[in-house]
Amino acid sequence: GQVFRLEDYRPSDYRITHTDLLFRLDPHATLVTAKLTVERRDGVAANAPLVLDGDGLVLESLGLNGAPLAGEGYTATPDRLEIRAVPAEKFFELEIVTKVSPVTNKALMGLYQSKGNYCTQCEAEGFRRITYYLDRPDNLSTFQVRIEARKAEAPVLLSNGNPVEHGDLADGWHYAVWHDPFPKPSYLFALVGGDLGSIHDTFTTASGRKVALGIYVEHGKEPLATYAMDALKRSMRWDEERFSREYDLDVFNIVAVSDFNMGAMENKGLNIFNDKYVLADPETATDVDYAGIEAVIAHEYFHNWTGNRITCRDWFQLCLKEGLTVYRDHEFSADQRSRPVKRIAEVRNLRSLQFPEDQGPLAHPVRPRRYKEINNFYTSTVYEKGSEVVRMIHTILGPEKFRAGMDLYFERHDGQAVTIEDFLACFAEVSGRDLTQFALWYHQAGTPRVTVTTSHDPATGDFEVNISQTVPPTPSEAVKKPMHIPLAFGLLGPNGDEMEMGSVEGAEVNDGVIHLTAASQTIRFRGVGSRPVLSLNRGFSAPIVLNQDLTKEDRLFLARHDSDLFNRWEALNSLFVEALIAAAAREKEGKPHDFDAALVEAAIEIAGNDGLEPAYRALALSLPSEADVAREIGNDVDPDAVRAARDALRREIGGKGRDAFRRIYDQHADSGPFSPDAASAGKRSLRNVLLDYLAAAEAAPELAALQFETANNMTDRAAALTVLAHQFPEHEATRKALAAFDARYRDNGLVMDKWFVVQATIPGAATLERVKSLTAHPAFSLMNPNRVRSLVGAFSSGNQTGFHRADGAGYQFLADIILSLDRHNPQVAARLATAFRSWRSMEEVRQLEARKALERINAEASLSRDVKDIVERTLA
Ligand code: HT7
Ligand code: ZN
C-alpha cells in the first residue's frame, strides 16, 4: 500500500477559496452540487492539471465556468478527478455533481444516516466521500451550504456557520441556507438533516455578543441534554477567562447521534457528538459519564481555536490540534473538579493506554513521519502524550511565559494551517529558550526510562542525586538522543516537611524543577542537614518510567507525608504494584501469599483519613489493574497468576479493614437528591471501592445485591452490578441482577453498553462463551460502534484472563469479529485490532496463539487498508 511521508509535503498547485454546496437529501440518492471557486497559485504553470480527491464517488456531471466540460478535458474515477482543461485565468469556477447513498454508508464516514437522520463525518478524509475536492487540511475555504429535504423526513436542517435563510419548496420539500465566513478545511464541514428534538440557551461573550446555543437529540431525550448545555456554557466562559478566547459565530449547535465512530467532532459551529457524550440523567448515567460529557463538550468547543481558527498544515501535525486541545480540556476539568484527583486519573489512563502503545509494535512519535492510513493515528500517543508534551512546555516555561506563548500563537497564526515548528517557535520566542532538544518529545517515540540513585553525606550536608535516562528503541528508530526531561521535585525532611536547600550544581534547577538534559547527570544539593527523601516527578511532570532507589519505608513515608498529592498516590500505588508482582511470582510457584502488613495498614489508614477528599481516597484504594501489573512485569506474563495475586491482595486488605470500611461505607451513604457534582461523585466512588473490598472480605454478595436493589442512581447500581458479576459470576444474586437490569434497560442502547461491559470484563476463561452468546442479544449490533466497543472492545482490551486464554480461543474470537466488521466499518475494526499490540509480552503458548490469529486476519484477501496497516505493524 501507499505510504505517506512528512518530507513529501508540497503545497497544492491550486486552492479552493470558496465552496458552494447544494444537497438534495435522499436516503439512497442524495445529489450533491459543488460549485468551487478555484485559484491557481502564483508560479504554477497555466496547463498544470487540477487533481481532486474522491473516495467511491459517482460523478453525475461536470462544468467549468458555467459550461459543461467535454470528456477529453478530464479523467474521473471513483477516487480521483483530474481536470486537464484548466482555463488560463487565475480564478475559475468548477461545478461538480455527485450522487451518494447515505443509507447504505455503514462506514460512518462522509454522509450517512443514523436512526434515519442524515449526518456527516469528514475528519480525516471523509469529505472526499461526498464530492471531489482538495481534501487536505491546508486548503482553507469559505462555505455556503443549501440543504433541501422532504420536510416530514428532515424538519431540522443544519450546517456550519450562521443561518442565512430557510423556507418551503414544492412537493413537501423545504430548504435552509447556511454561511460560514471563517475559511476552513473540508474536514470541518458538517451537515445534519433530521427529525430531532432540541434545547436552546444563549451565551453572552466577554465582549457582549449574544450567541444562540442549541443541542439536538432524539425526540423525548431533550431533558437528558441539560447537563451538556451547562458544560458548554462553562467551557465557553473558561476559555475566555483562561486563554482570552471568545466564540466567533452567532450560533453554536451540537447534534447527538447514536452511530458514531469516535467520541465527537468539532465541525465549525456544528459539533456532532456520539450521544454517549451528550445524554445524561441520574437514572441512566454514572458519575464517570457526567465527567466524560463535561470533558468532551469542552474538548470539542476548545477546538474552535485550537484546530479550527488555527488548523493543521497536514495530518502529520495532528497533535498540533489534538495534544493541545486535550491539554486544554484536562486543565478545564481540573479547574471544575479536583486537580489532584484529575491528574491521577489522567496518569492512570496514560499508563494503561499510551504506555503500552509506546512500548509495543505500534509505537510512533507524537508527530509521526509516515503513515499508511491516517485514521490509525488518532492514538493515545498523539492525543494524551501530545497533551503531556504541552504540559511540559508549561512546566519548563512557567505559567506567565506559557500564556505569552499561547497568546503569540493565537495572534500570529489565526486563520492559518500550521506545523509543530510554528507552535514551538512561539514559546521559544517569548521565553528566549532554545527548544530544539525539547522538540525531541515530538520526534522520538518510546517512553523514556529514568533511573535515580541518591546519597547523603551528613558530615558535609551534601545530597547527591544521580539521574540517568535512556529511551528504548521503537519500530524503525533504534538509536535515541537524550531528552529534555523536566522533573518537578521536593526534598522531605524527617518530620515530613519540605526541606530548605542551599546551592545546587550539576543541572539547571529552578522553581522546584530539575531539568535533566544529558544521558546522565549528578546533581549536588548543598546544606542539606539530614537525609531527605526525594519526591521526584511531582504531579507526573514528565511522562516517563521512573526507577528510583526508594526503600519501602521511603515510599510509605511519601504516601503519608508528601505535600504533592499526586506523588502521595504514586508512592502507595508503586507499593501495590511491587506487592502484586511478587505475589504473582509466588502464585506461579505455588507458594502462599505474604503481603506486607505495613502496606495493608497504610491502605486502611487512607480510607479513613478525613483530611483527604473521598475521591482521592477512592483512587488511592483502587488496586492497580491486572493489565497495569502485566505491563510492569513486562514479559512472560501469566494473566491467571496476576489475577489470583490481585484477588488475594483485595481479600487481605478487605479482611483487615472490614470494620473500618463498613463504617466509612455507611457514613458516606447519599442523603438527599442526586447531584453529579464532584464532591458527591467522590463520596460515591469511595463507597463503591469499599463495597468491592467488603464483598471480597465477606465472600458474599448480599451487600452488593442490596445496593443494587436500593440504588437511586446509575453510579451505585452499575458499581454494585460490577461487584456482583466480577466476584460472584455464577451466584443466583448476580443472575437476578443481570436479568433485572436487562429487563429495565433493554431498549436503551447506551445503558445496555454498561451491561455488556460488566459481563465482558468478568475475569476468567468462561467469559468468552458469555460474550459470544451476548453477540446474539437483541440490544447488540455489529453495526453500532458503541455496542461493539462495549462488548468486544471491553473483552479484548479489558479482560486479561478472558481474552488471553491460553488456548487462543479469545484471540480467534476477536479475529472473527474483526474480519466480519471490516466489511462495513474498517475504522472501528482497525481499532479493535490494536488489542493485539502487547502479544509479544505474553508467555510463549499465548504468543503462538496470538500470532496464529493475527496471521489469519492478515491472510484475508479483501482486508481494508485500516486493518492491514495495524496487523502488519503488529506482526512486524
Ligand atoms: N477531531 C475528531 C477526531 C476524529 C473523528 C471523530 C469522529 C469520527 C471519526 C473521526 N476521525 C477523527 C475528534 C476530536 O479529537 O475532537
Ligand atoms: Zn480533538
Q: Nutshell version of this structure?
A:
The protein is α+β, with helices and mostly antiparallel strands and about 900 residues long. It is built from 26 helices and 33 strands. About 40% of the residues lie in helices and about 20% in strands.
Strand-helix topology:
Elements: E1 4-5, E2 14-24, E3 30-40, E4 50-53, E5 58-64, E6 67-68, E7 74-77, E8 80-83, E9 91-100, E10 110-114, E11 117-121, E12 141-150, E13 156-159, E14 162-168, E15 173-184, E16 191-194, E17 197-204, E18 210-217, H1 226-243, E19 251-257, E20 264-265, E21 270-274, H2 287-302, E22 311-312, H3 318-336, H4 339-358, E23 370-371, H5 380-397, H6 399-413, E24 417-418, H7 420-431, H8 440-443, E25 449-457, E26 462-470, E27 485-492, E28 504-505, E29 508-510, E30 513-516, E31 520-525, E32 533-536, E33 545-548, H9 552-561, H10 565-588, H11 597-607, H12 614-621, H13 626-633, H14 639-667, H15 678-698, H16 702-710, H17 714-727, H18 732-745, H19 749-760, H20 767-774, H21 785-798, H22 800-803, H23 809-822, H24 826-833, H25 844-858, H26 865-875
Parallel strand pairs: 2-12, 18-19, 19-21, 22-24, 25-33
Antiparallel strand pairs: 1-23, 2-3, 3-9, 4-8, 5-6, 5-9, 7-8, 10-11, 11-16, 12-15, 13-16, 14-15, 17-18, 20-21, 25-26, 26-31, 27-30, 27-32, 28-31, 29-30
Helix pairs in contact: 1-2, 2-3, 3-4, 3-5, 4-5, 4-10, 5-6, 6-7, 9-10, 10-14, 11-12, 11-14, 12-15, 13-14, 14-15, 15-17, 16-17, 17-19, 18-19, 19-21, 23-24, 23-25, 24-26, 25-26
The chain binds (3S)-3-amino-4-(1H-indol-3-yl)butanoic acid and zinc ion.
